[in-house]
Amino acid sequence: MNFEFSPEDDAFRKEVQQFFRDSISPQVAHYGYVGAHPPPREVLREWQKALSDKGWGAPHWPQEFGGTDWSPLRKHIFLEELLNANGLDYGWQGTHMMAPVVIAFGNQWQKDTFLPPLLSGEVFWCQGFSEPNSGSDLASLKTRAELDEDGTHYIVNGQKIWTSDAMIADWGFFLVRTDPTVKPQRGISFLLIDMKSPGVTVRPIISIDGGDGLTEVFLENVRVPKENLVGEPGMGWTYAKYLLEKERTSSAFIYFNKRELEKAKAIARAEIVDGVPLLETPAFSRRVAEIEADILGLEWSVLRILAKEELRDNLDAVVSTLKVRGSELQQRVTELQVDAMGPRALRFFDHDTLAGTAPSEWDDLWPGIMYGRTNMYFFQRASTIYGGAREVQKNIIAKLAFGL
Ligand SMILES: Cc1cc2nc3c(=O)[nH]c(=O)nc-3n(C[C@H](O)[C@H](O)[C@H](O)COP(=O)(O)OP(=O)(O)OC[C@H]3O[C@@H](n4cnc5c(N)ncnc54)[C@H](O)[C@@H]3O)c2cc1C
User: Fold this and answer.
1) Is residue 111 part of a domain?
2) Among 181, 195, 313, 397, which is 20 to 30 Å from 374 by CA?
3) For the chain, how many structural domains are there in total?
4) Atom of ligand 1 at shortest distance to CA of 137?
5) 155 pairs with which residues across the strands?
């Protein structure tokens, strides 16, 4: 199998690198680098506009809606370089989740109304699927949407939870139950809700890393115009599955893992133990090598899928494998950063106490690396939960790969 990129792909990579060098402001680079959840809205808007002005605002959309005709391999190169250059990879709920569903199943009015402001960075979205008792078992969701007497509006009642970024979102795409009398999957619809509607209440959930990117969303007699229903009533489950299948290989988090490993190595290079850089000690360098090899193996699996050289029947199982492996690596890499830093990684040490004391060009990442909006360790404990919990992914692998 040949994994060399073609000269055209190499030229494309150079073009992408040049664009990022020219257009990523220090502000964007800061938030891209530290991985804040979420970055401030104005920074997200600035970045999305820069991408859109170049015609790269949503590379994976069809060209007629402002996307590109890039091959999967080129999208991979684009994302890899984006993270290398500390560009922002954020706002997925709108561009990567809602938009593909509206493009595939929405009507012309919905496409005209919802896609352009997303591309220009004017409007942000959140995803309202999970509920307090419906996570992995999503089909059991209870939020109800009933047509009012004149049949012009849905009246929505219920509660969503773990809704990322709802506090900065203008709109949300929600799974709601429109028919409680049929098989659970058949009674679910896909509804677009203006988050400023009366009856919508967003409350932050403070997570273990101190962040407030997660929320719970309460919907009390929210009136939603019938036009905001995407596709057919009762087809929401099918659309949601389509949405979750769209980004098959990004679940490996290759770019993230590579970059965070570089941070861990930089920390270990600067930490001196008995006169030797930690990175050069046998125990630590072995751990780095193990993780490096695992990331490389995972990257090759992704490239193999992208190159379509080994497409098997059970692609779902392959994607679940990437998710399990990629999310576990996210946790291992951030553990490595913490271990490299030792006690100063503890949340007890905050930026004010230790700012300026770390021997690294990435000073702002050092003190209290386990904690805080800008640091990754605690947040990545969730990577084996969101986007499909690890055990559920393993069930999929067992069923599809081994016929269990
Ligand atoms: C950081 C973060 C961001 C999120 N963002 C969003 C968002 O924007 N929008 C949204 O809608 N949701 C979001 N979620 C919710 C996420 O999709 C759910 O947390 C996830 O689907 C798991 O559901 P749950 O939390 O109800 O856990 P459960 O489904 O109750 O699972 C609890 C445990 O039981 C295990 N388990 C469950 N079922 C099985 C089974 N059949 N076999 C074996 N083990 C099983 C799971 O693996 C897990 O370990 C987010 C979650 C997190 C942590």
Assistant:
1) no
2) 195
3) 3
4) 29
5) 146, 223
